[in-house]
Amino acid sequence: MDFKQMYQEKLVSAEKAASVIKSGDWVDYGWTTATPVAVDKAIAKRLPELTDVNFRGGILMWVPEIFKIENPAEHMTWNSWHMGGIERKAIAQGFSYYAPIRYSELPRYYRESQNKPDVAVFQVSPMDEHGFFNFGPNASHMAAVCETSKVVIVEVNENMPVCFGGTEEGVHISHVDMIVEGDNPAIAEMGGGAAATDVDQAVAKLILEEIPDGACLQLGIGGMPNAVGALIAQSDLKDLGVHTEMYVDAFVDIAKAGKITGARKNIDKGRQVYAFGAGTKKLYDYLNKNPECMSAPVNYTNDVRTIAALDNFMSINNAVDLDLFGQVNAESAGIKHISGAGGQLDFVLGAYLSKGGKSFICCSSTFKKKDGTLESRIVPTLAPGSIVTDTRANIHYLVTEYGKVNLKGLSTWQKTEAIISVAHPQFRDQLIAEAEKMHIWRASNKR
Fold first, then answer.
1. What share of the chain is helix, strand, coil (3-state, %, to 5)?
2. Is 3-181's fold the same as 198-437's?
3. What pTM does this model have?
4. Distance CA 296, CA 167 (A)
5. d(CA 200, CA 193)
6. What's the pLDDT at 192?
7. Of the candidates 325, 363, 330, the residue with the CA atom closest to the CA atom of residue 346
8. Do residues 12 and 179 make contact, with C-beta atoms less than 8 angstroms apart?
9. 3-class secondary structure, 78
10. What kind of fold does domain 3-181 have according to CATH?
């Protein structure tokens, strides 16, 4: 095959690519940093002529042009596998919706569902000498998207890092229908949030005590996991491994501090495995053509069986709130949507199945409302509409700035007592009173 000739034959303008979209189509926009730019602008120009175009993607890192048209709800829906702030704002405009699914199931869903994409359009790195376009830090479910879409359009971005993997880290030109040479924007950056607070640091120190040499790490996004990463980078730990859903800046810091070798990993020895990565330029530069890092499909990274095969697996994730039964909500504030199921439950289950493994749900004990009122994140029962991300049977360690407790296997009254013990002192008596009403507190418990 003459790949260069094929490339020229399939090269089209963004406007030509956008012209294939019809009313009623399902259009896949890729994932995070791979969301299209040039073709998105072209689609936005003709979208007012169309109706019921259903876009699908996740974790938007900039506002797409299709969101900016007049009355978008009359022409489109945005269906997100995992929501960020941009998508949350679009919910109120009546065209953005969450698609609840365990993230690990996406590749299978695409391959087996009847609701296959009519068009897939997303950014990739330039074609290599073998005819492959790399997905960048977005292997995730993209191979399954390409396999099942009627039309595959790639938008080439020279700034997209090339992320080595094992399988499904790119698409071959023979499976691509159209190629658009995009505007080569810088890859969108996602910070780790605000600087770590004193609460973040306190929680991180409690978790650090539980991590042994040779442990395999999974970090979620946010201040607390990043605070844990910062402490690990400064610690005496050695021979750590990485197997995670999302690759974040903290891993770069830990690796550059010499703490990550992957030498003790039972599988993928020496490789840092991830489904997607989003962070600062530091992260993209580190992942680019780095053979130490392994971009892999999410049905591998997040598979409970894969996680369980790694000894001393440490899963560290955030929560919005949790109740006295041990039900963890990491997705919503009541009916107000925040993020999504993601892979948290997969890692909670997999870490506990791992030999020596532990999963940590960490959160600050309180938060402040807009009016300055202090509210407890530990509540008697979750608010109506709150989503149970991790059921009460699955939680392992709970960590706040007031301590850490192992909740696995405890009777209801024991679990309630342990949870209240790490709540903010201001709310403990109130929580005890509510627990008594629910008959999950024994009068003999210490107050």
1. 30, 25, 45
2. yes
3. 0.95
4. 6
5. 12
6. 58
7. 330
8. yes
9. strand
10. Glutaconate Coenzyme A-transferase (3.40.1080)
How high is the pLDDT of residue 169? 97
Q: In the CATH hierarchy, which fold is given to the domain comprising 198-437?
A: Glutaconate Coenzyme A-transferase (3.40.1080)
pLDDT score at 1: 78
CA distance 429 to 423: 10
- Residue 222 has a pLDDT of 72
Task: Give the dihedral of Cα atoms 114, 120, 123, 126; nearest 10 deg.
Answer: 100
The number of angstroms, rounded, from the C-alpha of 102 to the middle of its chain's C-alpha atoms is 11
Q: Report the catalytic residues.
A: 245
Note the pLDDT of residue 228.
Answer: 87
**Residue 351 and residue 304: Cα distance in Å, rounded?**
8
Q: Which amino acid is at 221?
A: I
**Could you tell me which residues come within 8 angstroms of residue 113 by beta carbon, excluding any fewer than 6 positions away?**
none
Are β-strands 53-57 and 76-80 bridged in parallel, bridged antiparallel, or unpaired? Answer: parallel
Low-confidence ranges of the chain (pLDDT < 50): none
Domain ranges of the chain: 3-181, 198-437
8 A C-beta contact, residue 71 and residue 290? no
